[in-house]
Each structure stands twice: as structure tokens, then as C-alpha cells.
Amino acid sequence: MTSTALESFIAQATARSRLQPDPADCVLALAPLMLDLLDQAGTFLEPQHYRSSTTGYTRNLIFDAPDASLSLYSIVWLPGQWTPVHDHGSWGVVGVLEGILEERGYVRLSPDRGADKEIDLARGGTVLLRHGAVTSFVPNPDHIHVTGVAADRPRAVSLHLYGRTMSNFNIYDVGARTRRRIEVAHNES
Ligand SMILES: [Fe+2]
């Protein structure tokens, strides 16, 4: 079942992203929509959007555009669950519904010539995001980070909007200075 708030968000996000080909302009236009969507989440989130797993953080699909230009997921993070170090190949806008989502950034020191080796990353700062917070990122150079929830904190739930169907991304081995493309799973709506 879809809600008016979700339908309106999708319609506005689709329109604004088409008007803003520059990813930095796009996230500027979409971040306020995510802020409002968080307030409306109770009108469209259903039990399947809160599915979790003890084996790792869980991505639950909410919306996937037929032309693959936009996708929205709810992600459920149990205590101690983290992503690998990864990028996105897309802009993204993230809003926190529940708990404290932590983001640990990396800064790419070596130029990106599209190669999967000789990649030098330095650890950057951390961000702690509570309910109601919205953050975003843009590609080229791609945003590289780890996201998750500390083991001593409660479950977190967040909404993630991307500028493509987010079914794969690069994960990085910082010590080996390499990266590789992986498929990332999700639960269907
Ligand atoms: Fe990410």
C-alpha cells in the first residue's frame, strides 16, 4: 500500500532530479524533501520495511523507478552492524528514522583513473546522526565511507534515496589498496 506522502515524495524527487543534472544541485534540491519524508514515515512504512537480520544490516526496498533513475530503501542496522568501506556511483540522500546512525568517512588521496588498484585512502571524520537528521553525498570523486551502528547502541533505521537502482557498489580493501565491485542484496517490498 502506498501513501499520499510517499507518492508525493517520489513525484517531487523524480521531477527535481530531472531538473538538476549536476549531482550537487540534485542533493540540494532533494535533502529538504527527505527531511519532510521522515516526519511522514509513519504513513507508509510497514512491517516489511523493518525487516532485519542477525547476519548483517538489511536493505528493504520501498521504491525502484522503472527507468532505474531513482531508488528508495529502508535500512535496518542492528547493534554492531556495519557496511564494508564502499562508494556509491551515484548521489544519495539519507535520513535517520530511529537510533543513531554513524558514518565514518574516507578521503581518497590517489587520483581516480578508474583502476581498481593502487588506491590510497585516509580515514576521515565521523558523523553521528539522530532521528530527523539528513545527510547526502555526490559522486566524482565518489564518496567513500563506512556506515553502521556501534555495538553498544540500539537498532537504527534509515531511509536511503539514490540516483540509480543501488544493486551494486565498489568495496575497498584499504590495506591492500584495492577495490572490487560487488552485488548488494535487498528485500523486495
Ligand atoms: Fe553508503
From TrEMBL:
Keyword field: Dioxygenase, Iron, Metal-binding, Oxidoreductase
Keyword Iron applies: yes
Superkingdom of this protein's organism: Bacteria
Family label: Belongs to the cysteine dioxygenase family.
Protein's UniProt name: Metal-dependent enzyme (Double-stranded beta helix superfamily)
Protein species of origin: Variovorax soli
